[in-house]
Write a structure and sequence with these properties.
By secondary structure, this protein is of the alpha/beta class. 43% of the residues lie in helices and 12% in strands. Helix 1 packs across helix 11 (216-225).
Amino acid sequence: MTQMRTYVLIHGGGDVGWSWHLVAAELRRRGHEVVAPDLPGDESATFTDYADAVIDAVGNRDGLVVVGHSFGGYTAPLVADRLGADLLVLVAAMIPAPGESPADWGRTTGYAEAVRAAAARDGGLTGSSDPYVGFLHDVPRPLADEAMRRSREHPSPAGRTEPWPLEAWPAIPTRFVLCTEDRCFPPDFLRKLAVDRLGIVPDEIAAGHCVALSRPTELAELLDSYR
């Protein structure tokens, strides 16, 4: 018998909870509960505000699997730590270090150099300023258009410059899902970062950065397998 879980799905920068809707539908089909809130969009929102919004949406549910995509990698550990989640999953996500702001993350991790190197190899596809090239290249065009209509300024200026508040990674089992066709976070860069910062060898999906829209069934199947 499948054990029911509550999947707490945290979206990335510029995004909303809608980005998870296909994954959420597949997880619900498998008998699980899903919570996928919009994070606050006001200019003063902090990491505490982001975490509070998710925790309020979770309510008294248990059996929690907290999943963070992209910039959601900054919020997901805070939520998992405060709620005592059973599992924390990062999907094509930033992995913060204590005291490291998102604005500093690119410099301290070597991200900018990794993007330049990948762009030199693929003719400028990696790091492209065109979201249909750099983020949504493998998402069906109607879904990509809808994602663009729903996009917004996020995180807030405060959220970009605030130091990550935890003193250490939470003592919660953690998995990492890497997208092998990611043009935002180069795969080789994230593989090394996951090992260096978490001691984790990632699981991999052949998808771009917006995997929840391009490969929702495959991603839901992988998340379900972690139970």
